[in-house]
Amino acid sequence: MAHQDSSLSIKVDIQDQTLTLLDHKGVLSCYRISTALNGAGEAANSGCTPRGEHIIRAMIGQGQPQNAVFVARRPTGEIYSAALAEQYPQRDWILTRILWLSGTQPGVNRLGTVDTMRRYIYIHGTPDSEPMGVPLSHGCIRMRNSDIEELFNQVSVGTRVIIS
Q: Where is the L,D-TPase catalytic domain (predicted)?
């Protein structure tokens, strides 16, 4: 499991489409990501990626295989494949691991109509066929499955996440 290092933080750069894991010494790793097609924004039902200071509120998927499919934060028992994608063309695929985010700034990204957690904003795995470095999500932060698994194993509930 994660080594509970409180000096860790995550920086998500919407402009550069990167997620960087940092500790007190500097950069540990940097990943290509995909944020919202609709751009940055905090409003409920906007389909935008929220900005500001967040924390990881919940970590979901420990022990699940890579490409495990999640619906409503629960594993369905399915493993993502091209055939499954063809069967369900409208699904927004949430795969492998979920880091569920919560805003920490009331009125900015927490409570009321701007609540990141109530908007179900995650950092999660996505099909390998999906491009990275291009904003295409419905608000979440998408990562390659191997990358989200690696990140998941290094962070813990309470890890700071800054989205700008």
A: 8-164
List Cα–Cα distances, 115 to 55, 123, 135, in angstroms: 13, 16, 21
* pTM across the whole model: 0.95
- 39: domain CATH number is 2.40.440.10
Strand segments, DSSP code E, in 80-118 are 94-103
Mean pLDDT by 10 residues, the chain (164 residues): 70 98 96 98 97 98 98 97 94 96 98 97 96 96 98 97 98
- Check if 30 is active-site: no
Q: Distance between CA atoms of 136 and 151, rounded to whole angstroms?
A: 21
Residue 23 CA to residue 5 CA, distance in Å, equals 9
Strand partners, 143: 125
Instruction: Say whether 140 is catalytic.
Output: yes
pLDDT score recorded for residue 5:
59
Which residue among the candidates 24, 30, 48, 124 is catalytic per the annotation?
124
- Domain hosting 62: range is 9-163
Answer yes or no: is 102 within a domain. yes
